[in-house]
Structure formats: C-alpha cells, structure tokens
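User
Here is a favour to ask of a fellow structure person. I am asking you to supply a protein in sequence and structure-token form. Please set it down just below, with no commentary around it:

Assistant
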Amino acid sequence: MEINQITINHMTEPLGYDLDNHLRVAFNLTNSATIQDTKKRIVVKADKEIYDSNWQVYKNNFFDFALNLQPRTRYELTIYVKNANDESSKSSFFETGKMAEPFTASWIGNNDKDIQNTLLAKKFTLTKPVKSARLYMTGLGVYEAYLNNEKVGNELLAPGTTAYDQLIQVQTYDVTKPLQKSANQELLISLGDGWYKGNFGFDGGQDNIYGNRQMAIAELHVQYTDNSTEIILSDASWKTTSGKITKSAIYYGEDYDDTHVIANWQPVTLLDHSKEILHDRLSLPLTISEYLPVKEIIKTPAGETVLDFGQNHAGWPEFFNRENTGTTLKLEVGEILKNGNFYRDNLREARAAFYYTSNGEQKWVRPHFTYYGYRYVKVTGNTKPLTKADFRSAIIYSNMKTTGAIKTDNPKVNRLLANVMWSQKSNFFDVPTDCPQRDERLGWSGDADIFSSTAVLNMDTYAFFKKYAKDMLIEQKQHTGMLTMYAPAMGNDSGGAAIWGDAATVIPWTVYEAYGDPAILRQNYSSMKAWVDWISQSTSTPNLWTGCFQFGDWLSLDGENPAMPTGKTDEDFIASIYYYYSSSIVAASAKVLGQQEDAHQYAEQAKAIKQAIRAEYITQNGRLAIDTQTAYALALRFDLIPKEQKKRVVKDLVTRLGKDNNHLKTGFVGTPLICQVLSENGEHKLATQIFLNKDFPSWLYAVNLGATTIWERWNSVLPDGSMNPEGMNSLNHYSIGAIMQWVYQQVLGLHQQENGYQKVEFAPQFDYRLKQVQGHYESSYGDLQIEYQLEKDEKHTIEINLTIPFGQTVTVKLPRTNGQVQVNGVNKELPLTLNGGKYTISYQPVTSYIEYYNLAMPVKQIMTDPELVKNLAPINNVFNFLQDSKNLETFGGSSLTELNVMLPFINISDDDFAKIKEIMVQTPLASERKFLNERRTV
C-alpha cells in the first residue's frame, strides 16, 4: 500500500495561492486490498494540530473541508491509509499568502512614466543567519525579480493577465536559499509594459489600457534562526533607473541593448495606487516546459536565413551570443513559409521581433516581457555563421500537467491529435487565448467554451479554468451580468452573444463535471445566474433569445453570403438553445450547491424555453425548420427532439451530410457536435468517415499540408500552399480541435464518468479504419490506461488491455458481443464491473471488423480498386463509363444506385445489381486486403 501523489486544491504544494479557506486534498493510492477494507485520515498542522478528520471508511480519494486559514502560514498535512494488513502515510504542505493582511509596503516607481524598463533596487544587509524567507510582491505591467543578480523563481511574465483595475495578483516566492548565500544582498525588480500598459488589442491596439506607469510593491519577510524577524519593504529608500530593454510589448516583441550602462540611480517615486485590489494569486505560473532545438537552418529562395524549429508553438527564441560589441542581431518570427520564403503577413499589426544589441559577452540571451507564436525565425544582422547549437526555442505555457493522450495505427490521426495538444499548450497562456501570434491573443470566451470539454481531458486545467472563471466573473460584475467577448475585456465592453457569453455557465459546469469539485461553482454561482438573468432581460421574445447581436455558427461554410462568417443556421435558434442550456446548467449547479429554490426556478425556466424552441422550430412530425448540419446537431445534442421523432432527425442529418458529400459545413458551434451526435445515434461509421476525410474541409486536410497545430479556418492554407485570401489565418487556433473529445469518448472509450472519474463507463465504438488504439487519462485516482486491437487473428479476436487505478470503478460495455467475454482468461458476462487492477479482455465479435464493399459506397471508392473493377466490368457498361476520369470526377461522389436513377443513359437492371452485390459483399476493401495479407505474413 502506497500513497503516490497528493494535490491541494488541484495543485502540488501550492505557495501563496488563494485557497478560499476551503481545502480539497486528493491523493491516489496503490493498494492490493479491496476498497471496503481501506480507511483514510488526514491531519493538518501549523505550529500545532488544527484539523484531524479521524479515521473514515474510504469512499473516495479526497478530503473536502473548510478551514480558517491564517496569512503567511505554512501548513503541513499528512494523509494516512490503512487496511487489515498494511498502513501507509504521506506528507505534503501548502502555504498561504498575504490573504486579507494589508500591505505595509508602498507602490513604487520611476518619476518618468515613459521608461520602457523600470528598474527598482534595494541593497540590504542580513544581520543573522536566515532560517526562512518569503517575498510577497507584484508588479505592473509585468516583472522579474532578482536577488544578487539571480532570478527569483522560474515564473515568467508575472503577475499574469487580469483586469488590473479590479484584481492584481500577488506572487509568493520562497527565497530562503538565495538569502542564505550571502549577508549582503540586493533585491532588484525589472518591469515591462505587458498587458497592463503596452499596446494591445485590435486594429492597432490601445496603449495604457489599465494604467500609464510601471510600478511594483514588495514585502520581503525574513525569519532568522533565532526566530526573530525582519521585513524589507518597498518604500522611499529604494532606488530606480532605466534598464537595458529599450522597448517591449506583447505584440511588439522586445528590443534589448546590452551596451546600455545601468547608472543614474535616483530615489523612487511613491505612488498612490490601490492596495485594496491586491489578491493572492489564482494563476498557475507561466513557465518554460521544454526547449525545441533547431531542426534545420534554411537558406530561402529570397536569400533569407531562417531557423526551422519543426513545430509551431508559443514561447520565445533564445540564442548563445557570439557577436562583437555593438552588433544588433534581429530575430523575426513566422508560422509558415510561402513559396519557400519567410512569411509573417498573417501576424497583421504584430511586429513580433526580438532585437538584441551585443555587449560582446558570450552568453545565452532571451527576451523578458513578451512572447511569440511561431515555427520559423528569420535571423538578420549576424556577422558570424549561425549554428543549430547556438539557438533553441523555449516553450512557454501555464504550468499544467498533461493528463491524457491517444495514439492509433493511423499516423495522420496521431499528428492531428498532437496538433490539438500543441494548440492547447500554445493558447493556455494564463488565459485561454484564441491565438498566440498575431495582434490578438485575447481570452476569447467562445473559443474556450467549445474547447473546454477537450481541454479537461488533455491537461489538468482545474486551477487554470478557475482563474479564468474569476476573470469572467469580474467582467460580468462590471457589465450587469453580461459577459464580454473576451476576459479580461482589455477595455472592450462588447459582448453578450450566445456561446461566447455562455462560457459563464458552460466552463464552470464542464470543469465541475470533469473533476467533481464544486469549488468553481461556489466561486461563480452568482455570475452564472447573472448571465442567464441578463439574457432574460435582454431578449425581445419571452422564452427565446432574439433581438441581440450574435456570432452565429462562426466561420461555417454554409453561409449564403460569403462575406458573412456567421453561417446559414438561424442565429436566434442557436442563441435560444444556449439560453436553454445555460438555464439548465444554473438549475443543476443550484442543486449541487443546495440552492433548492433556484434549482426549481431555473429548471422551470429551462423547460419553458425548450417548449418554446420546439414550438418555433420543430414541426409536430419532427421536421426541423432549419436544414443545416449545425441545426440538426444542436437539436440532437440538447435533446430537443421528442424520443419518438429522434430517428427521423438523425436520418435528416445523415441526408443533409449526404447532400454535402459527407463533409462538414459547420463552424465553431456545430463542429464539436457532429461526430458526437452521429456516434451517439447509431451512425459511428459515418462519424469516423467524416473524421478521417482528407480533403477540404476536414481535420486531416491541414495535416496533409504539414500543419503542426490546429488552424483557425479549415483552409487557412490553400492546397497550393498560399494563404486564404479571406484573412483571419491563425495557424495556431485550438477551436476545431474540440473533436478530440469525441476521440477520447467514442474511439478510446472514455464514454461517461462520475465524481471526477471515480466511476467510468468504458464503451468504445470500434471501426475497421482504426484497428489499434491506445491512450490514457490520469485523474486524481491515477492513470487509467486503455489499449485495444481489432482483428488480432484469423478468428477476428478483439483484445483489450485495461489498467485501472485503485479507487476507480470501470463498467465495460462492448459492441458486437454475444454477452460473454474472457477476462484474464476467465469467461465473464457483460456488462462488466472492474475495480483497480490489470485486465486483458478478449472476444470474437458476432460480425468481424473487416470491411467489405457495398452498393451504397461512392463509385469513386469502387473505381480505385482495379482488382474489383476487373471483376465488375463484364456485368455492366457503367464501369466503362466511370473509367473516364472526367466522368469519375463529376459523378464519383454518387453510389451506383444513385447513378442509375440520376442518369438516363445508365441502365443497371435488378439482375445486374444482384450480380454486382454478390461480388462486392465477398470482396474486402483494398486496404482491408492489404491488412489481411500483412496479418497472414505475421
């Protein structure tokens, strides 16, 4: 028995975070005993014991309790577990920040508001040996702190992004070790404009959105070995001057002059800035997770020198300086090459460069107060040859643990899923941004809304989304319940649109459902209600949502006006459905939080909205008034269709897709839903076909053009490699990567879960095109590992391997069984219920997963198999007709049955159809024959 990991409010050993006087301490356990025999206990101590849960029967893997915490206090906790034969314990800690304790320090800055890099410094001498030391500080816009020229901590671009006029986060640093090195110390704070003061936003951006002067506030609390204490404060005794960064901003990049001599120190200016909005941190730190090496140094046709890092990402380039004093090395970034040359026009107004003027010292150099989205770096100004070893790229994102991954036997699919993960990393940058490269990088709520269900599977995003939920709450308070288009709003008061605004309810609820922790609901419940109430007050039609600005099905392909990216699906229909969904979420959240009156009120409201939508948009016979893919997907996803009419709507969706050549026409709203509703309604084969399409529009279209991240548009890059002339061509935009939720749930089989994955329904839907799949999801219980192989042998055996962590219960449901499977060699009845352990499940399906030809297939698929065509050609002249490439291009999307009806000169008799069918049903697809031959060889 062993306790492997302890998290406190979804973090490991959190230092200085806002814990809201409420702890959720979770742990995972290796245990060979049964759950019923296991007990748990937690003890929390500060100077003395302050909480003891006493021994409890193990019913889950967490302790959830309120605790009256004190500021600047270290709490040690120990978890104990035992059974009849064994006992184990593991300790961890957390430390509070300033909490509600007022700052006695002052805000300080330079008298010159226009300085681009304010330096603030204080020299001091420690009088005794140091036992422990903590630095509580923050800065505006962004800062780094140094003790004796050594950077404090590994965090970058602190204090992160917030509405700085409402909330400024305070960081807590353990600086014991640097202060123990020397009695003589200098605390230096370096400041940049960042999001607070630097140019930011659309159409050239705004300056000074939240303020016009860089500043900082700091308290260094030192405890000596004799337990006496000293506090070094930011106050009038500090000095200030300008640093070596001559200009920096998020979009601009950074100019760094290492020849600048830091001198002319002057007394600081004490600033009258609010301390009331100082708040212990919520943000996870932005850190460097890894470095990418240079894959290739390219000499372009235009004569440019370009570094290729092989992967689009967010971060910054670093290099080892070998240049002489006075030489300026210029680095510019881009996402793609155009005709083999460096290209950056899709970055719009973002300069996105790093200029470094050398002081002749050989050392590693990096930016400080900016970041970039890029794969390629153009280098100019160098006087010496470039080498790969002298450059690297730092990958920067909020410090979140990767929790999920999937791998299949299809390399293109694997690349797509990797692209989704890379786009999440690139855009989970303190807030969920839309893109990391151009003059935007904003916390767009709609993008975060539709991607959140995928995000919570890929990474542990609880703390990340709880902070973003706080950002949304702050904006709603400033806008009478309405949520702005992005949060923080960055001075833009626009908002109130469906999906984008519904992030106020959808994200907290999605996160609660994924992790089972209601803390995010407690934090945001008032703002969730406020959003729904704002819709009720703003709509022009009771129980529907009309009369407001809407984004519609943003960037869909079915719009009647090419200039309008909102699509063909009625905007009020979309809005009304999300009005219903948000009302339902508020009702469910109220129930979780024990707010029974609210639960009843909002449930009744949701019921009334649902009835109004049905009355307005669905006929009594189940015909949907809007014939678009997104409309059908929404109606099915949100259970708007009466049960007895559901089959008709599914059929209508399949028909609509058929008219669209089984390709997506959906935008932001419909894209995450189509495959889900198909798989949930008996059309998994069609869902898989759409997922695996390779031509535009499809997920694999971008992969086939070399994408290493998810694009904003289906065709941000055209087949010839040129950029889409419509504009808005971010090549790192996670939204349509939301399909990965479907892969986790329907393909890998993580179909449903309860209580933060304490209970899991494993119900994969198999398809012949993905015969080998493996993946995992690591919840607080541990890592649930899944691997399966179809058609393992000539008996068509399916073999599944499951590794289930202790405390987790997995119900197994499998397709095409006769009700029995073998589990670790023993016959078992389905459905299975499995607890912690390793299992091999095998069975022979009642029908195999070898796919054969059929009459419903498009003729272009038939004609690509010469062996099949050779056998079919003597039956009917239609196959000679289709061997003409022009005819095949024109009619290839139709089936033989459709051609027979559609074209008067095609005449396939019933007799001929019978002969054709007989051959087809006995002929495996060409790809399947290849697989069978390879299996025989093995």
